[in-house]
Amino acid sequence: MSLLLCRLEPVQHPYYVEVLGIHIYSSQELCYIIYNNPLLVMEDFLDTPLITFIREELDMEPLARKLQSLADQKNNTDAMLLLILSECDYYTESEINRFKQTLAAYHKYHPAEYLKAVADALFQKKQYGKAIVRYQKILEIPKDKVVDDEFLAKVYHNLGAVYAQMFQYEKAFRALDQSYVLNKNPDTLKRIYFLTVFEPALAVRERYQSLFTPQAKEKWEEELSLARQNAMAAKEVAALRELFKKDPVKRMKGAGEMINQWKQEYRGMI
Fold it and tell me: How many helices (H) and strands (E) are present in the chain, helices listed first?
């Protein structure tokens, strides 16, 4: 992206982007969110509260008026998004044209492909609850040339991965089981094995036990060991280590703050 001058906007009430679980404090941040999350702003993003935020907090009355006019005409989401990018002078003309092409490409997707792309984007943003809703909607779509066994296997696979991230291992297993039945993907089998490690009480069918060969388990255990080492080096773990070096009073206070932060993050995920 080119070097551009930024506006100074004394925002009193930031705008909360529910689909991403973050607050916006400036027009630059608004443009950045739009440009880098096209799939997540093509639906239910451009609403009256956002237009009000642009008018009252960003003090961009002309832009808000144009957006309201487009909103009144219905089905003008693309035009509204492009208008914001153009009026805020944050991205260059060539960058905005590329964004326009990206929107056009998504509009050509099969409904199931589009839903999966949105769900995958939400998964990447750790918006797990919202991702699950989209994946489940895909499973309601009748099978056709696009929604075949291979496609559904990917949906079930990702659904299982989301549940695993939320520590809902039984649901994760059921989804991964469906995925493996459809396409026998070795990566799915590996993830099912990982679930048995994370949750030993998980009732895994006997046929999987026979598929967990000694050679495969040795390889997977090496992957798990490396993952554990990387986890121990994570900044969250480092923060915990520093916390336990403090005196009891500061330790309890820090632990409370950390737990509250985790609670907020988890609520955002669901």
Answer: 15, 2
